[in-house]
Structure formats: structure tokens, C-alpha cells
Amino acid sequence: MRPWIVWATGLFAYIVAVLDRTTLGVSGLDAAQRFNASPGVLSTFVVLQVIVYAAAQVPAGLLLDRFGSRNLILAGGALMASAQFALAFTESLPTAIAARAVLGLGDALTFISVLRLVPHWFQPRQVPLVTQLTGICGQLGQVLSAIPFFAMLNALGWTPAYVSVGALGVLSMVLTAALVRNTPNGNAVEADTISVRETLRSVKTVWLRPGTRLGFFTHMGTQFSVTVFALMWGVPYLTRAQGLSAGLAGTLLTVSVVAAISAGVLIGIFTGRRPHRRSRLVLAIIGSNALIWTVVLALPGRAPLWLLVVLIVVISVGGPGSMVGFDFARTFNPSATLGTASGLVNMGGFIASLLVMQAMGLILDGFGEISSESFRVAWTVQYAIWAFAVLGILITRRKTRRLMAAERERQDEMLLEGVRTRRGN
């Protein structure tokens, strides 16, 4: 029972992190009035947050290897709660932007720290499923921002709503301090954890492991499409290009969360039972994403509602699909550098998301308007990322398989030598 309590406490911290991450998305109009900011300036909040999140992944991984999950979850919670309290009371645009940057830093510390708890507290056969559950259940934070936070914002106003979210972060810190331990043996980081200097030197070594790069390209190819859709361009696309109401567009985003949770359970069971088929599953997810976007973008006019639902369901599978990348990192890296490896993997999808968001913005600006035709061209930038990620997966998968074959051959030789030695004696 204790492993589930530790995991649930860490999961709660991650749910709060996702809530913090998405509050500005549902309070955009209020933020524009409060800070007297244009839509272009407001988009800076999202872009800056993603930049900080992605840039902090490797440092967060290094800190995780050094100080352990509990300390980093507490630090991440403190940063995010402070940022939300600052947003609650400030009316200064520069202060608000700085607060979102701090929030992105705290967010970066949280997810990989919660993931690292899983292999320490659960049996190996349970790890893939619990890893999937961590990723998909964390998205409940998006539901919290879309429903109770949004309702509180409308009923009580900006400051009470953001203070409440900050207070929830403080609660998660209290629970983490009371209930979370790095391992069943206590809070101490493993004895084989290397020094700071050696850890810094090991980043190159971790990246050069084919399994780490396989996880990076897996995360890159599967995660970015749904992230770009949910964080920035999905609602404008559905309302301006496809003619849906804002309410219906919000409902479709809720469908995205449900689809991700459902797919995550199935993916977790599949990868746990068939670990040697993980890369095939990833390629199938990327292929299905590219195919459904091709169908939608090829239509001369607006897509029927049922096809938009299919689009959102299919790209939402990419969220839990990206979690397979962390499974690759866990499989092919020792425990002492698992945090660094997870940070490197997590960069893949967010770097891709940032590039696509920026490229789409430039294309839409080039057209001079947000329309069906401008979005049709803008969404095509995804194909470059998919092609790059698939190429990376195929190359690193081949190298990983060669490495595994060589390791099995070496073990067989050692076993045979041991048999010969015993016979000689």
C-alpha cells in the first residue's frame, strides 16, 4: 500500500503543476485586460514558459540525480506556488512574465522527479503501466483549470482564483514533505550517485547512449502535435478555421483528455507485456498522427464534426505515446543517471512544440489573417518534425539493437567461460 501512497502524493504534485501550467490558457481574456496586453504579447507568456521548461530539463535531471525526487518536488512546488501568488497580486506586465518563467522552471523540476519514484517503489513489470498512469492522470490538472478554476475566476475574480491555486501548491508541498521518500529505504539518494562534476561530465555519455536518443526522438515525434494544439493553436483553429463555437471547442479539448487517459492505460499494458515492440508502437502512433492530419488538411472546405473528433482523439494518443520515451531511458540507463536521461528525453517533445508554435505563428502572420487557408499551410510544418523524428528513431533503434545483441553475446561468453572453468576444476 505504501508505494501507492508515495506515488499518489507525487502524482498530486504533478497534477498541481499541470494546473499551474494551464491556468493562463483559460484566463487569457482576463489577463489581457489586467495587464493591458495584446494577443501577441500574451503568446509570449506561453512561449517563454515552454522555453524555460525545455531549457531546464538537463539541469533538472542533473539536480535530480544529485538530490533525489523528494527535494526537487518540494523545490518545484515552492517555485510554482510563489509564481502563482505573484500573479495573483501584480498588475505589472514584466512581473507577470517573470512569474510565468519561474513557473516554467518549477514545472520542469516536477514531472521527471515524480517519474523517478516509480522504478524505486514498484516491481519492474508494473513500471510501464504506472509510468503511463503518471503522465495521463497528471492531465487532470488541465481539467481543473478548465472547470473549477475558470468558474472561480468568473465568480470571485482574478486574485482569489490565483491565490487558491497557489494555496493548492502549498498543500502539495506539505503532503510531499510528510509522505514522499525517494526509496523504500528512506530519503537518501542511492550510494552510487556520482558527484556534481562527474555528473556534468556524464551528460555527454548519457546522450551518446542509443537508448537515450531513442527516447528523445520518441518523445519528439509523438508529443508535439497535441501539445501545440492544446497550448496555443487548437482553439483558434477550431473556432476561426473550422467555424465551431468556443463552447464546442472547449468540449473537444475535454475529449482530448479522456482519449489520452484511455489510450495511456492500453499503451502501458502493451509496453509492459511486449517491451520489444515499443518502437513499432511509437512509429504507428506517429504514422496515425500524420495520416489524420493529411485527411483533414486535404479537404477543400471545413471538416465535418465527426472528423474533427477523430483528429483530436488520434493526436491525443501522442501524449501517452511520448511516455514510451521515458521507458526507453529507464531501460538503457543506470539508476545514477536516470534523472539526466529523463531530462534529455523530455526535451524532445517540447523543443519540437516550440519550433512548431513559432513557425505556425510566422506563417499566420505572413498571411495577414487567421483563416482556414492560412491554418492549412501552417499545420504542414508538422511533417518536417515527423520526418526528422522517424529518421532518428530508425537509426537509434538499429544502434540499440546492435548494442543489446553485443551485450547478450558478451554475457553468453562469460557464462561459457564460467562453465569451462568449473569443468577444469
From TrEMBL:
Membrane topology: Multi-pass membrane protein
SUPFAM superfamilies to which the protein is assigned, alphabetical: MFS general substrate transporter
All copies of domain Major facilitator superfamily (MFS) profile, residue ranges: 6-401
Localization of this protein: Cell membrane
Chief site of localization: membrane
Classification via Gene3D superfamilies: MFS general substrate transporter like domains (1.20.1250.20)
Record protein name field: MFS transporter
Organism: Mycolicibacterium flavescens (Mycobacterium flavescens)
